[in-house]
Amino acid sequence: MKLRTFRIIVQTAAFLVILALFFLTVYPFAEKYAIDSFLRLDPLVALVAVLASHTVAFSLVGALVILLLTIFLGRFFCGYICPLGTLIDFTNHLFGKKNKPANQTSYRYIKYIVLAVV
User: Fold this and answer.
1) Cα(first)–Cα(last) distance of the chain, in Å?
2) Residue 70: CB partners within 8 Å, gap ≥ 6?
3) Which of 73 and 117 is assigned the larger pLDDT?
4) What is the pLDDT of residues 34-57, one digit of tens each?
5) Nearest Cα to 79, choosing from 19, 11, 18?
6) What's the rounded Cα separation, in Å, for the pair 115 and 101?
7) Nearest in space to 10 (alpha carbons), one of 77, 61, 64, 93
8) What DSSP string describes 35-63?
9) Which pLDDT score, from 0 to 100, does residue 13 have?
């Protein structure tokens, strides 16, 4: 199986899981921790939760796994699990990629400044 095919399968499965968790969270189902279980996979959300509560919860181990996979595989969360990344890939496939403006290089380092501030 090609890596691209594997990524599409994992992206689709992750998107369906987040969609199911979203609908389990919405009234009348009102499952208490449905969407929270997916958000705990995000390392930034896990870090904020640890800093806010001053404790390390065992349920945040998923974020540590995602972080380790990211170290070894690159942008693992964004490329395979994040629903926003899945929607961006899907819309790029539907509508095609637009050409980037030529003067975009002057704003290249702003994302790193925002990351450092966050």
Assistant:
1) 38
2) 43, 76, 77
3) 117
4) 667 777 777 787 788 788 888 877
5) 11
6) 23
7) 77
8) HHHHHTT-HHHHHHHHHHHTS--GGGHHH
9) 92
Distance from C-alpha of 65 to C-alpha of 46, rounded to nearest angstrom? 12
Do 34 and 24 touch, CB atoms closer than 8 A? yes
Tokens of 24: 């389990």
Nearest to 81 by CA among 93, 89, 71, 72: 89
87 vs 75: CA distance, rounded Å? 16
Distance in angstroms (rounded) separating the CA atoms of residues 60 and 34: 15
The first and second tokens of residue 93, run together, are 């496939």
The angle, 0 to 180 degrees and rounded to 10, between the axes of the packed helices 61-73 and 43-53 is 140
